[in-house]
Each structure stands twice: as C-alpha cells, then as structure tokens.
Amino acid sequence: MHDQLKSGKFKTKSEEENEQTAQAYQNVAIVEQAVSVMGTDMVEIRAAKNKCFFISYKIVDSKPFVYFITICILLNVGFLAFDKYPMPAWEEKLIEVSNMIFCVVF
User: Fold this and answer.
1) What is the spatial distance between Cα 39 and Cα 99, in angstroms, rounded to a whole number?
2) How far is CA 70 from CA 56, 80, 87, in A?
3) Integer distance in angstroms from the first to the last C-alpha of the chain?
4) Where are the domains of the chain?
C-alpha cells in the first residue's frame, strides 16, 4: 500500500478536491468563453442584417453615452431627493419639468 501511495495510484482527499476544483474552474472558463463568442456572433449577425441596429449598438456601446446616462441618473436622484413638503411653486415646476426630461432620456 505504501508503494501505491508513492506511485500516485492513491490520492489524498485534499489532492482530489484540488483536482476537482481545478476542473470546475476550467469548465467555467470554457462555458464563459463559449457564451462570449456566441454573444459577439449574434450581435455581428444582427448588425449585418440591420443597419439601424448597428448604428444604435455603436452609440449605446460608446463611452460618452455611458457617461451621459450615468450623469443623468445621478441628476435624477438629486432631483428626487430635492422633494419636500411644503414646496414652493417654482420647486414643484422644476421637479415636474426635470421629471419629464428624464423620462424622455431614459
């Protein structure tokens, strides 16, 4: 039995767990790679068929658009936090107009 341990036929429990963990990470990496390739292919296929989709995707995927939406979200949160009671008429109008603007943007 001692010779079998040296030859590697028997493995300790921690060695088996390490191998199973390594195999699980490899499987996850393979699945993630397949999903990312499939997603990219689907976008490219759809973009090739539809020019409007291609242009929209390029705009939405750009950094300036992401920054613009992030700033709009932060401003919207600020305006929503601005609500209080009693509120002067000009503040009510400001919140109402900003709400309409953010509804159109979002």
Assistant:
1) 35
2) 18, 15, 28
3) 70
4) 1-59, 62-106
The secondary structure of the chain as a DSSP string is: -HHHHHHTSS--HHHHHHHHHHHHHHHHHHHHHHHHHHHHHHHHHHHHH-HHHHHHHHHHTSHHHHHHHHHHHHHHHHHHHT--SS--HHHHHHHHHHHHHHHHH-
Q: How many CB atoms lie within 10 A of CB 53?
A: 13
Are 95 and 83 within 8 A, CB to CB? yes
pLDDT one-digit tens code per residue, 49-103: 888 888 888 898 899 999 999 999 999 999 888 878 888 899 999 999 999 999 9
Amino acid at 77: V
The predicted model scores a pTM of 0.52
Distance CA 23, CA 84 (A): 57
For Cα atoms 26, 30, 34, give the angle at the middle one, nearest 5 degrees. Answer: 170
